[in-house]
Amino acid sequence: MSGTDTPHEGWRPAFRGWRARRPFWGGLLLTLGGGWILLTEKASLLVIIHVGMEGVAGYLLPTVMMLCGLLTLFSPSQRLFYSIVGLLCSLASWITSNLGGFFVGLALGVVGSCMTFGWLPDQEPRVSRRQRKKQARATEAVQAQ
Known about the structure:
It is a single chain. Helix content is 76%, strand content 0%. By secondary structure, it is mainly alpha-helical. The protein is elongated. 27% of the residues are buried.
């Protein structure tokens, strides 16, 4: 489903097609987790730089999380590397950034990284249980005749 198939289909089907070809929800959750941790930082950047490298890590790790989430969305071929780096940064934010953004940013980052790591491209869509039963009944009816 590319944008050239039907030129007048609109932005929603085009977005659905774009979203289907990448680990969208995992990348979005990883980006939101990094953003949440950045929003919960209390001290200003000037104070943090004065404190030293420990303080800079509180801003650096969520920024890397956001960057990994965005890179996952726009470069899904490297999703495994980005998900591992995002997971490590999420777990390290427990120590450096207000308990990982008071657990919310940490949880969003970990779940998003795991979803990104588990995403498989070019996988056939799953068939619901109801549809499988309907197909089995139809096959049995054809064989019975």
